[in-house]
């Protein structure tokens, strides 16, 4: 776990925690480290768990796969990001019906799992960092709720072009520049926006011809 100390120091969950407290904190939380290969499931739909994950390396995706194999990406987490925290916290206080989504490794990833029960309940040592952790977690959950609302705004647009413009405009605003990189490849972007990949690629070509944007792989510029 020590080799990921730099990641832990920068992670939003541990903001306000002194570096000297990080290792004792992880021991108190009974944190567990696991490695996953690309494509492997970290959590499967219907699985019951009171633990959530923090990405130490790699990249994971939270998605819904329907009966016919159609995939919708709900969120993506890179180094330092959390996943499954809302469901874990709900399950820690009452019985739950199982994790409603699938979480898979988009690339080889190392994940630290934390039991929400350990985080929310003060330990016998009365560690002072529990309150700070809960405050940090609350902020993360609130920001993710806002991000999910924004995704609904993207996917509620009527046409593929409108969905692309809404998403790319938001990415430009986030980057503070008309030139920016998105965290998805073409198939992942199509899955995120709930559109057909071929239709989306064709629409991107038309948008480039119309002088709306230029792009190369995941690099975009709005004109």
What does it look like?
By secondary structure, the protein is α+β, with helices and mostly antiparallel strands. The chain is 42% helix and 26% strand. The chain contains eight helices and nine strands. Strands 1, 2, 3, 4, 5 and 6 form a six-stranded antiparallel beta sheet that branches. Strand 3 (51-65) and strand 4 form a beta hairpin. Helix 5 (129-155) runs antiparallel to helix 6 (160-175). The longest helix is centred in the middle third of the chain and has 27 residues, at 129-155. It is elongated. The N and C termini lie far apart (45 Å). The mean pLDDT is 88.
Structural class: alpha+beta
- Radius of gyration over all CA atoms, rounded: 19 Å
Question: Beta-sheet strand percentage?
Answer: 25-35%
Number of strands: 9
The largest pleated sheet is described as: 6 strands, antiparallel
| Poorly predicted residue ranges | none
The rough form would be described as: elongated
User: What is the tally of helical segments?
Assistant: 8
How much is the average pLDDT?
88
Order of helices and strands: HHEEEEEHEHHHEHHEE
Work out the helicity level.
Answer: 40-55%
Terminal residue distance: 45 Å
Task: Summarize this structure as a short list of keywords or feature phrases.
223 residues, 9 strands, alpha+beta, 6-stranded antiparallel sheet, 3-stranded antiparallel sheet
Short précis:
By secondary structure, the protein is an alpha+beta fold.
